[in-house]
């Protein structure tokens, strides 16, 4: 079976919730990275078979966003498009879906990516279709509702949201507030250091933002990094749940961003004149208790190692998405492994942000560029997923 080659991975800067990208639709972010990936790779757009794009909070403003964004980016009408959703694993799922397409011969070139504009996620109602005889209509916040409805209540009981699941992980492993705050502060310091050293320069495609008066500004740098953050300053924040560990400072952000990569059958690289930066070696998805969803990477990585015969010693970098600081620490306990010199070396969800549908490909992009700077190597990508899942993938430099 041919290998899935990875070409020209790129991402936008990550915007804060309600920040610089708050009025930029998801499809505009997606279009930006599609155009950039095509331009950087040099691919003839006519040779792209499909666009697999992940979006976790989809709506009908750009239905089947893979197709919509492909058309918006000016790709030929012959290029098909699809949409994936596996919550926090959405972008990674788009990548592996594309890889399966080229590995099985269903396609030769697929543009894969993920996007989320959490700032523009709408409120909605389920009661307006046939009208209400009296009274008002209830509007749900799609952001909160998706977290509350992540599992069937009849089977697992009510879970108020992802914060509750993180607190469950902290309680299971005896993880403290101080430990969580230290990890969160380190995430910000690493992300800031990466920008200052120019390590993100080659992976980021700026976004042009037009305000209501028509003025255009260029958004070029991740917006949520706080270099002044310390464990002491985080210690002054109030926990979200009384007596809990999770605060606004040691949890991932809500964000706006997009990322994309060209996935190509290895035996077509020379013909197409494409230079890969890496290859996808393998991937897994695994389920876990929804109440302990943060531990999803434990099962997913165990499954990946069993399939590939690899272990932590085989990886130069480990990208474990920081949904919550205590969740990361819980996963490390579950793995029985903790080497911070290889873990999230340029920051993660707490500092860089967690634009749900884009996160998986953002992680891939950062890891591949970091490996390239180091002269090659192998990276493990993994994240927990709301509703009780985990995903993991192994990539190696070209």
UniProtKB/TrEMBL annotation:
Every Thiolase C-terminal domain range: 275-395
Domain Thiolase N-terminal: 6-267
Annotated Gene3D superfamilies: 3.40.47.10
The keyword Acyltransferase is assigned to this record: yes
Active site: 88 (acyl-thioester intermediate), 354 (proton acceptor), 384 (proton acceptor)
UniProt-listed Enzyme Commission number(s): 2.3.1.9
Name the UniProt record assigns to this protein: Probable acetyl-CoA acetyltransferase
Matches recorded under Pfam families: Thiolase_C, Thiolase_N
Keyword tRNA-binding: no
Family, per entry: Belongs to the thiolase-like superfamily. Thiolase family.
Example GO molecular function: acetyl-CoA C-acetyltransferase activity
Keyword annotations: Acyltransferase, Transferase
PROSITE patterns according to UniProt: THIOLASE_3
Gene source species: Nocardia speluncae
Top EC category: transferase
